[in-house]
Amino acid sequence: MPFLLLIEDDDAIRTGLELALTRQGHRVATAASGEDGLRLFKEQRPDLIVLDVMLPGIDGFEVCRRIRRTDQLPIILLTARSDDIDVVVGLESGADDYVVKPVQPRVLDARIRAVLRRGERESSDSSAYGTVVIDRAAMTVTKDGQDLQLTPTELRLLLELSRRPGQALSRQQLLRLVWEHDYLGDSRLVDACVQRLRAKVEDVPSAPTLIRTVRGVGYRLDPPA
Amino acid sequence: MPFLLLIEDDDAIRTGLELALTRQGHRVATAASGEDGLRLFKEQRPDLIVLDVMLPGIDGFEVCRRIRRTDQLPIILLTARSDDIDVVVGLESGADDYVVKPVQPRVLDARIRAVLRRGERESSDSSAYGTVVIDRAAMTVTKDGQDLQLTPTELRLLLELSRRPGQALSRQQLLRLVWEHDYLGDSRLVDACVQRLRAKVEDVPSAPTLIRTVRGVGYRLDPPA
DNA sequence: CGCCGACTGTCACAGGGGTGTCACAGGGGC
DNA sequence: GCCCCTGTGACACCCCTGTGACAGTCGGCG
After folding, report:
1. Which residues of A touch B164 (CB under 8 A)?
2. Other CB atoms closer than 10 Å to residue A199's CB: what's the count?
3. How far apart are CA A212 and CA A205, in angstroms?
4. What is the pTM of this model?
């Protein structure tokens, strides 16, 4: 049974979500401020944290960063629509997912389960996307049991994408993660590598189902249906 | 039901992990110092040890070495990220796996189960890879029943590879495990030894099927199909 | 509905980096 | 002292990789 910590200052929302999440089968601890949240976190060691961004005193981002300095547990941010925050600002502070308020309990629950599942998959050293299996220990990728013989760069690209399945990564981000340098002129570097990767990984490279293009942004690895 | 011994001096982490691991279905004994840990180990004979590296008094590496002098049970090291330790420094002292703190309980649990599974397979003193048989007790390697007359270094290399079949090991890691020193310039040391080993072990050394090259990484011993 | 611009897919090629291979010299064990 | 093992460095080769040009596609706008 997953054990959650909910940090939210608005009494109505906090109590409502606590009730709903408990009914969905989670154990829930709650805190009404960033300070309380951090203290409870250290005491109780929850499996996952749901964290409001707008908090009096220490705000949610800061709570997130402080937790991240020492711990890797999943964190889901709650943001008000009016905050109009780029996904990335949140993810930069180390959160794993974010949900826009007002939030329906069953939506939040779905996100929670998704993030927890993701954690389980990643903790094991291999993960599967359809018939494609990534083995992080052997550093191999197989499709229908056949070794795909990825090149080092292709492999790193796929590994980085698979660390964040379902999340769109910009060319800029991929450049940093895979190539470890900052500046991408207007070269087709990332595109070319994605193309080569698709040629090996996809059933029909011209109609990709695993590595999807996100127009105007970059690419995304779709989790299996 | 697996019986674990958890050696960790930080009260919060120890209690937290004990709780979590118990919830995951393990029996857990705990110790807060290296001395206590060794004593409990001798008394209780656990199936597996989870061992913090930073301990007052005898540190984790030393505990690991002492246990290894007499016993072969699986040991998982816990290291703080800030220690910035290469995987292999830990593996050198004889540990079977290592996990970076802060650790999610379910990640630790997954590693524990993986190590225990691996241990069951390896518990026999000999293993076969196709027609190649490694006899750890006799310290011999035969192929089609013929003794292969490996040199000491070749044998150590093969043994280290065979302790982690299917897992890619970098040249750096192999250097530490087999040669016990840290710095690999740009010499062909590891490659040369692998080549000599292949010449004896492989059917067609130029097209190896046992000791595979993992480009950009290192080498890997393929488990039998 | 059609045009236009921006974005992406694709490809060939040249350069570079990583790996296989080998011969040789030093060193340690018997 | 002899011999086998071992580490080194040089070299060649092959595959990978980044680039740039061009074609194709998508979305928006009139």
Report:
1. 137
2. 11
3. 11
4. 0.63
Domain spans, chain B: 3-117, 126-221
Measured between beta carbons, the chain A residues lying within 8 angstroms of B16 are 45
A126-221: what fold?
A: Arc Repressor Mutant, subunit A (1.10.10)
Strand D within 7 Å of which CB atoms in A 84-113?
Answer: none
How confident is the model over B92-132, as pLDDT tens digits?
566 777 777 767 777 788 888 878 877 665 555 677 888 89
Record the tokens describing residue A77, joined without a space: 């941010």
Q: Which fold has domain B3-117?
A: Rossmann fold (3.40.50)
Locate the chain A residue with the closest alpha carbon to B23.
A1
Nearest to A157 by CA among A208, A122, A192: A192
Q: What's the CA gap between B169 and A55, in Å, rounded?
A: 46
| pLDDT, tens digit, 9 for 90 and up, residues A68-118 | 776 668 888 888 754 545 454 555 566 777 787 777 887 888 888 877 776
| A156, two tokens | 């790193």
- Quick one: tokens of A207? 């109609």
Considering all nucleic acid strands, name the nucleotide whose C1' atom is nearest to the C-alpha of residue B198: C20
- The predicted-structure confidence for B178-216, as pLDDT tens digits, reads as follows 887 877 777 899 999 999 999 999 999 889 999 999 999
Contact assignment for A138 to B168 by CB distance below 8 Å: yes
What pLDDT does residue B88 have?
46
Distance of alpha carbon B10 from alpha carbon A195, whole angstroms = 49
The contacts of residue B33 (CB under 8 Å, 6+ apart) are B7, B9, B55, B56, B57, B58
Nearest nt (C1') to B185 (CA)?
A: D8
- Cross-chain CB nearest to A119 (options B106, B166, B168): B106
